[in-house]
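Good morning,

Attaching, inline, the backbone tokens for the sequence recovery test we're adding to the shared suite. The designed sequence is right after.
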């Protein structure tokens, strides 16, 4: 059975100029131990589709799907209280902006211990012990001292490590990483990706890696969903996608990789992308 199963997900926002469809009939599955990349340029509905799956969108979003299940359980029909028990525990998410995702008013130690208290009900001593273990696991030096730091006292890379520690605190079955390295320095990006891949392998988690970067896809994914303007353009295992892309949009994304580009300026996606058949467009 798939961990997360999404069929024909549609997300519409009520806006001043009428309804806007940010996600338009997307389907995908993620299995245990599998890394699925969702790739597409900014605004293609990658974050919104995952936030919809997790039930984290604001009330202005209208979410419908033919199927939206976690471990076979219907997420859309279950009571909000049930869903909250799953989100943050069995499904965890890492966001693009590590510093903004942490609460500036509390120490990072308080923030990780809060997750351990709410979801696992650990007492104070057990929480502290587990928090130190988690900080060690994500490569934060002097973990016991670091628990007393506020987010602004840490670098972006260290904050992202804290976010990752919080996300894996309850041993989630599925981890959704939403552009987890985009806000970080290039030298730190590789370290964070390596860390995520190591944690994924150690724990056998399902991992959804959201990215606009084909290099990240190549480095991490087993399978890839290519999204454009709220639709799924293509889905393939990673080798097939790179060797034999079906859609012009995927070819354009690949051509925009620095290795493939010619001349001294990288082409933009809109220059490379002509037109395409949208998968499921007949719907
Ligand atoms: N709360 C919101 N209200 C209205 N539109 C939104 C909201 N959140 C996102 N959108 C729009 O939905 C589209 C998809 O956004 P998003 O999923 O964040 O793209 P990305 O692929 O970059 O993650 C964008 O056009 C964005 O402006
Ligand atoms: Mg996004």
């Amino acid at each position: 059975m798939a961990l997360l199963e999404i069929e024909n997900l549609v997300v519409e926002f009520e806006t001043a100029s009428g309804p806007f469809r940010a996600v338009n009939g997307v389907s995908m599955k993620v299995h245990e131990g599998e890394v699925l990349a969702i790739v597409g340029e900014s605004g293609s509905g990658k974050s919104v589709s995952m936030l919809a799956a997790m039930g984290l969108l604001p009330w202005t979003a209208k979410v419908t799907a033919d199927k939206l299940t976690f471990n076979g359980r219907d997420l859309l029909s279950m009571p909000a209280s049930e869903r909250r028990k799953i989100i943050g525990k069995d499904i965890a998410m890492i966001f693009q902006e590590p510093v903004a995702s942490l609460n500036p008013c509390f120490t990072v130690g308080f923030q990780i211990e809060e997750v351990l208290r709410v979801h696992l009900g650990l007492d104070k001593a057990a929480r502290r012990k587990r928090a130190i273990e988690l900080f060690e696991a994500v490569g934060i030096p002097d973990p016991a001292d670091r628990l007393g730091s506020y987010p602004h006292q840490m670098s972006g890379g260290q904050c992202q490590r804290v976010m990752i520690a919080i996300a894996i605190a309850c041993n989630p079955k599925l981890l959704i990483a939403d552009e987890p390295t985009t806000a970080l320095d290039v030298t730190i990006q590789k370290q964070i990706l390596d860390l995520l891949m190591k944690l994924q392998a150690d724990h056998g988690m399902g991992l959804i890696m959201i990215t606009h970067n084909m290099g990240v896809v190549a480095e991490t994914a087993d399978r890839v969903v290519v999204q454009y303007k709220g639709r799924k353009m293509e889905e393939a295992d990673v080798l097939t996608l790179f060797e034999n892309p079906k859609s012009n949009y995927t070819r354009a994304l690949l051509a925009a990789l620095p290795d493939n580009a010619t001349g001294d300026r990288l082409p933009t996606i809109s220059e490379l992308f002509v037109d395409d058949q949208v998968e499921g467009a007949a719907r």
